[in-house]
């Protein structure tokens, strides 16, 4: 379900409380590129402070709970609690670092390397969000959504998963759970 659609002017910023969401763009021919994953604790929609309209859409991948914070209330909170502004600034820097890695992923890494790198990123972020069960990664996305993230076909995605398993790097514990072995 979409929370923000490209071209909208959100009057609120959001915090994901539970679930999983993603930022994405739809190209004129209908192809989709997922450009970020949003995990519990992540704030999103802050682009509304800088731009008149959003340049991407945000939708949920799992049933999710979201808190909406009116922009004027958030700005007032920054004045009262400077540590909140610092936290948002820090989060923005972390998002920029992740985005740089995604550019390298799509530009230079093989399909298997892209997949492994994404799994490691999600594992680290989900661990920080307390979302790991028995240190396994619950994949909130389908293979089609994974393909849209990695910029590869669904068939390449499937082959990459099989290669990572054959190489002993991951084990698919259940249909949507992955254990990172190495």
Commentary on this structure:
Helix content is about 40%, strand content about 25%. By secondary structure, the protein is α+β, with helices and mostly antiparallel strands. The chain is globular. The termini are far apart. The mean pLDDT is about 90.
- If you compute it from the alpha carbons, what radius of gyration comes out, rounded to the nearest whole angstrom? 17 Å
Question: Quick check: average pLDDT?
Answer: 91
- Give the CA-CA distance, first to last residue: 34 Å
Show unreliable segments: none
Helix count equals 5
User: From N to C, what is the helix and strand string?
Assistant: EEEEEEEHHHEHHEE
Percent strand equals 25-35%
Largest sheet: 4 strands, antiparallel
What is the percent of helical residues?
A: 40-55%
Counting copies of identical and different chains, the oligomeric state is single chain
In a nutshell, what does this entry contain?
This protein is an alpha+beta fold. The chain is 42% helix and 25% strand.
Compile the SSE list and pairings.
Blueprint: E1 2-4, E2 12-18, E3 21-26, E4 32-38, E5 43-44, E6 57-60, E7 65-70, H1 71-80, H2 82-108, H3 111-128, E8 137-138, H4 143-150, H5 154-166, E9 170-174, E10 177-180
Antiparallel strand pairs: 1-6, 2-5, 2-7, 3-4, 3-6, 8-10, 9-10
Helix pairs in contact: 1-2, 2-3, 3-5, 4-5
Descriptors for this entry?
10 strands; 4-stranded antiparallel beta sheet; 42% helix; 182 residues; single chain
């Amino acid at each position: 379900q979409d929370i923000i659609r490209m071209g909208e002017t959100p009057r609120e910023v959001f915090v994901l409380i539970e679930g999983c969401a993603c930022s994405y763009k739809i190209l004129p021919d209908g192809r989709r590129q997922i450009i970020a994953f949003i995990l519990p604790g992540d704030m999103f929609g802050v682009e509304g402070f800088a731009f008149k309209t959003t340049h991407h859409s945000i939708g949920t991948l799992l049933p999710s709970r979201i808190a909406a914070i009116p922009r004027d209330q958030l700005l007032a909170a920054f004045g009262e609690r400077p540590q909140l502004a610092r936290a948002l600034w820090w989060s923005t820097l972390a998002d920029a670092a992740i985005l740089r890695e995604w550019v390298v992923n799509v530009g230079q890494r093989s399909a298997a390397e892209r997949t492994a790198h994404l799994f490691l990123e999600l594992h680290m972020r989900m661990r920080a969000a307390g979302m790991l069960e028995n240190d396994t990664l619950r994949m909130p996305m389908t293979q089609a959504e994974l393909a849209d993230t990695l910029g590869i076909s669904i068939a390449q995605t499937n082959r990459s998963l099989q290669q990572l398993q054959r190489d002993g790097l991951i084990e698919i514990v259940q249909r949507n759970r992955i254990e990172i072995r190495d």
